[in-house]
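hey so i finally got around to running the thing on that chain from the lab meeting. sorry it took forever, my laptop kept dying and i had to restart like 3 times. anyway pasting the input first so we r on the same page abt which one it is
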Amino acid sequence: MDNLTAEHVGLTYTTLRGHTEALRDLTLSIAPGAFVSVLGPSGCGKSSLLRLFAGLTPPTTGHLRQGATQITGPRRQVGIAFQRPTLMPWKSVLDNTLVPALAQGTSRASAERRARTLLETVGLHGFLDAYPHELSGGMQQRVGLARMLVNDPAILLMDEPFSALDALTRETMMVELQRLWLADAKTALFVTHSIAEAAFLSDRVLVMSPRPGRITADIACTLPRPRTLDLLETPAFAALTGQLRRALDHSA
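ok and heres what got predicted. didnt touch it at all, straight out
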């Protein structure tokens, strides 16, 4: 696997109301297999950064690379999970999971074998024929995770995938995501507003300033893995979340 890098990246949106500078002179590198979270206030450009690495939005200035290759558009080796899973209501759980694989031209038989394995892994084996309206919010997010992984991507890009869930379900999904990530050691970039999510999941947390977004802190999370929910009650976790909170307070 290759490093993900951004070199002096800037992003400015042009609308009928004028120009909005979302990101300014942003430089970073993410090592293969690392889990990196991006933490910052609303509107600071976190989601924009994710879209840049996904190849969905071109930068205004600077370059983004995967290894030596410049990122100029979407790639097969990238899986994306959004704030809401945006499942197609007329498709079953299995068929929703298959969408990215079939769009990439994978044979249905091959894609279905992997999709069934993933859905069993995330605890949805008995719901393959269910429809989205028959699922809880947490179950829908599990479908979203399985869909993100169905092409076996090397890179996972996640934009606040748990923000719409209740607190208990969010904690369960943090553990589930960690388990899926540890199984394959994929490179992960995770956007969140939650200090606890960032601390629990990450190897590193990048703290961003208000718009235009800049990285104002890069904090290592060295708590041992695998991490369980018991970790949330430890002094070490409290110290890490306190460090992240102070970095956010000083990010302006």
